[in-house]
Design a protein that fits this description.
By secondary structure, the chain is of the alpha+beta class. Helix content is 30%, strand content 25%. It contains 11 helices and 17 strands. Strands 13-10-12-11-15-16-14-17 form an 8-stranded antiparallel β-sheet, sandwiched between helices. Strands 3-4-8-6-7 form a 5-stranded antiparallel β-sheet. A two-stranded parallel sheet has the order 1-2.
């Protein structure tokens, strides 16, 4: 086996921390360090563990090491006319493949194409015993049963260190169109649910301040037919592209205003609710994505009021930015919390990795 200094360094650091009982804070590009509870422990740097290990465009699969810059991976895919269809948010330059999977966040197209975990075929990880483990494979038929590789998506590094991941990729769509409609929130939610029941190439949606933007993607004929059927005002690609990219990376006007409001004490919350949920009654401003299923609120309301509004709508709330006011994530029901803690005990019994990042004591 060829020597791997970057991996050997990680293993040695985990062994030393295990012997001393010191917690470790897994770090890549730190573009998502704000997400979740604060990092605690000695930094475990993953950026040296970088590079695309293999890429088979004809098989629609790519394998990359955790420290690989996300920009580098997306550029390599784009050269072959392929992409990560779930549009992982980048927030800032420097994000890594490992951080993308660990955060488990998806962009505007999530409701149409699926989440990060739906594209994870396999993964190699370093557990809390300093053991290197591999799960899954590089084709969908290998992904069955107790799929640990997909459990890593959204785990925020609490189960172990992602070393390498194999991902399913897809060809870029032949055609894209963006339509704008002037309508209030209630009408927008109604229309979105009506359109979702029809055979339309819906790929993303965003409602804010009386305007609904709808993105269509697919075959040329399907996009053209849907555009004629739906109407609305077509947005030129030179304007639409930057809008959707800004929405993906939270650089558009809503999020810029929200970050300014956070400086004066407001909170930016992501509420995950059924798409059919009625409009929520909270003070502040709201942006709606995912056909009504994801509702961003910039609000001065206390955490208890935000979580109660989400609960009554049949969902839950996560604090993205804002002053501490209880936990970042909605507390889990007892059965689910026991399951999370059992998984943590199995993979990281000493609680070395990202201690408390997801749940208190986890």
């Amino acid at each position: 086996m060829n020597p791997d200094p970057a991996l050997d360094r990680l293993i040695d650091q985990v062994r030393a921390a295990l012997a001393d009982g010191r917690p470790l804070a897994i770090q890549g590009g730190r573009t998502k360090s704000f997400y979740g509870e604060p990092l605690v422990g000695e930094p475990l740097e993953l950026r040296p563990l970088a590079g695309i290990s293999s890429y088979e465009p004809t098989e629609l699969v790519v394998t990359a090491r955790a420290g690989t810059p996300l920009d580098e991976l997306e550029a390599a895919l784009a050269e072959k006319g392929q992409c990560l269809p779930f549009e992982p948010p980048r927030f800032a330059s420097g994000g890594t493949v490992g951080g993308m999977v660990a955060a488990g966040l998806s962009g505007p197209s999530r409701a149409a194409v699926g989440a990060v975990r739906d594209y994870v075929l396999g993964a190699t990880m370093l557990n809390g015993r300093a053991q290197v483990l591999s799960f899954g494979g590089q084709v969908m038929k290998n992904v069955a049963g107790y799929d640990v590789s997909r459990l890593l998506a959204g785990s925020l590094g609490t189960l172990g260190v992602i070393l390498e991941v194999s991902l399913k990729v897809l060809p870029m769509a032949p055609a894209t169109a963006t339509l704008r409609f002037e309508m209030d929130e209630g009408t927008a939610l109604q229309r979105l649910n009506e359109w979702a029941a029809q055979p339309l190439p819906l790929n993303a949606s965003a409602w804010w301040d009386g305007a609904l933007l709808l993105r269509l993607r697919g075959a040329q004929a399907a996009v053209a037919a849907a555009s004629r059927q739906l109407g609305g005002d077509p947005i030129p690609a030179m304007q639409a592209g930057p809008f959707w990219e800004g929405l993906r990376d939270q650089r558009d006007e809503f999020f810029v205003k929200a970050r300014a409001a956070v400086q004066t004490g407001a909170g930016l919350w992501r509420l995950s609710v059924p798409p059919t949920a009625a409009p929520l009654r909270l003070p502040g401003e709201q942006l709606i994505e995912w056909g009504g299923g994801q509702r961003w609120w910039c609000t001065p309301a206390p955490a208890a009021a935000v979580r109660e509004a989400a609960r009554q709508a049949g969902g839950h709330a996560t604090r993205f930015h804002g002053p501490p006011d209880g936990p970042v994530f909605t507390p889990l029901p007892p059965v689910l919390e026991r399951l999370h803690r059992s998984l943590k005990a199995a993979f990281d019994p000493q609680g070395l990795f990202n201690r408390g990042r997801l749940l208190s004591g986890l």
